[in-house]
Design goal:
By secondary structure, the chain is mainly alpha-helical. The chain folds into 2 domains: about 80 residues; about 110 residues, no CATH class. It contains 9 helices and no strands.
Length: about 200
């Protein structure tokens, strides 16, 4: 595969992962801060991203399916019951669930993170995967705590701003911060340096 094809593939993956969130933020802003309309469009965008992923790649990862089900269920309840706190706890549930799965993988010796990220880190040793899994599991717990602190103590607008300018950049920075450790444990020097588990 050419470098251009790889870049296109990475760009498409990012668009599928982050596109629904971008729609959510834009809809909230353009609708006059109507979180219920934004949530409805978030559900639609998530469903579309799943369909595109299935058509283009022929599969959808279990964790992406889990995230989409959460969007449909909690987003639907948010609109139906007209309670915005329901969609606000979605990141917390997602982060705690994924962290639990990763810790379970560590405890049982199963490469759960490797299953999610696939071939993103070729050459990485078993010890490298173990350390990366541990790091992400702890990081996701920290994100869950942060999400609870923000939505419970600040406005909806601040919470959305935190997700866009806080948790998402923090996730990318955290992924990049793991690179030196990964390279000490077999990661090829020419491998794309930042790969993250699917965002909530």
């Amino acid at each position: 595969m050419s470098a251009a094809s790889k870049e296109t593939g990475i760009g498409m993956r990012l668009a599928l992962d982050l596109g629904p969130l971008a729609v959510y933020f834009a809809a909230y802003s353009w609708s006059g801060k109507d979180i219920f309309l934004a949530t409805g469009l978030f559900i639609a965008a998530t469903a579309l991203a799943m369909i595109v992923s299935l058509v283009r790649y022929g599969k959808v990862s279990p964790i992406q399916v889990f995230s989409a089900i959460m969007v449909l269920l909690l987003g639907g309840l948010t609109i139906w019951l007209h309670k915005d706190w329901i969609i606000k706890i979605k990141p917390t549930i997602y982060y705690v669930t994924v962290s639990t799965i990763l810790f379970w993988g560590l405890a049982t010796g199963r490469p759960t993170l490797q299953m999610v990220l696939g071939q993103a880190y070729p050459g990485l040793t078993a010890e490298g995967w173990r350390l990366l899994t541990r790091n992400w599991a702890i990081f996701f717990i920290a994100l869950a705590i942060a999400n609870e602190a923000v939505w419970r103590n600040f406005s909806t607008e601040f919470w959305l701003g935190y997700k866009l300018w806080g948790s998402m950049p923090a996730t990318l920075i955290f992924a990049a911060a793991n690179v030196p450790m990964l390279m000490r444990h077999g990661l090829a020097a020419d491998t794309p340096k930042v790969a993250v588990p699917p965002e909530e």
